[in-house]
Amino acid sequence: MTGQTDFGVVIIGRNEGERLIACLDSIREAGAPMVYVDSGSTDDSVEAAGERGATVELLSMEQPFTAGRARNAGFRRLLQMHPDIRYVQFVDGDCRISDGWLQFARAWLQQHPEDAIVCGRRREIDPHRSVYNRLCDYEWDTPVGQADACGGDFMAVAAAFAEVNGFNDTLIAGEEPELCFRLRQQGRTIYRADREMTLHDAAMTRFGQWWQRAKRAGYAYAARGALHRHVPGGLCRRENMRIVFWAALVPLAAILGAVIFDVRWLLLLLVYPLQFFRLWLRLRQADSSLPAGRFAMLLLLTKWPEFGGQLMFLSRWLRGAEQTLIEYK
Prior knowledge:
The protein has about 325 residues and is an alpha/beta fold. The protein folds into 2 domains: about 5-205, Spore Coat Polysaccharide Biosynthesis Protein SpsA, Chain A (Alpha-Beta Complex); about 225-320, no CATH class. The chain contains 12 helices and 9 strands. It has helices spanning about 20-30, 45-50, 65-80, 100-110, 130-140, 160-165, 175-185, 205-225, 235-260, 270-285, 290-300, 305-320; strands spanning about 5-15, 35-40, 55-60, 85-90, 95, 115-125, 145, 155, 190-200. Helix 8 crosses helix 12 (about 305-320). The radius of gyration is 21 Å and the shape is globular. The two termini are about 40 Å apart.
């Protein structure tokens, strides 16, 4: 293959409706082959994808669904149809690819053979719809340059992706950082470009949605830590320890200290308003237009749903129970 046809696109989704149509429309002009992997949609997603030129792969629901499993299925189907594909763009069905990104990413990987993955700036379509959407948009503004990980939207070198056997099918979340971890162990690098990549529709307007999303993040940290617990240095150990410290150790020490020794142990709880102030100050200094107070409160509170996610994973893992999705939409 030559020219633009040496890359393809894998899209995953379920009941994305108009978001999926917008996603497919943002890709068609590039002229690259598209594979859409559907995971049990009950709307017209399958028909919409076929009408827009995508090859549709229906993911069997007899096995537990994960995004990693869906992306792996799409990758295999893409290479089955186009064995000479060199680069693969992965994108979620609730995202639109920004103009020029596919061509830029392909050219970048051609010119930087040390990079296995290149990603760019994912933005929220409507960040001002809710504080939760806006916090997502802020969190996606990661540093430019060599990175440890990427999110769900990125272009990968097909050979490098295949060499590490793609995503881990069993992870219900956090599969992208885990993939990047294995790639980096093989000596490959991940690059975050200073370039618009995708527009995402989080559609997160309720506190309960945000709580579930944070719970899923805690679950993912714990799962990645357990998966690579024997690797020197491990994976996500600092993140897991930070969650346990703020959500469990501090309040437990304060309460037990007050009960066993002296009520003044409750003064330990003052670390929370101090942490809130530290977060508020950091956010204000980073960007004065941010709702620093609300962001700081959510970032402080997030440790408790994350801790709940850790406990959920631990319970399932110790019992050998099936790992099932934690969805917020």
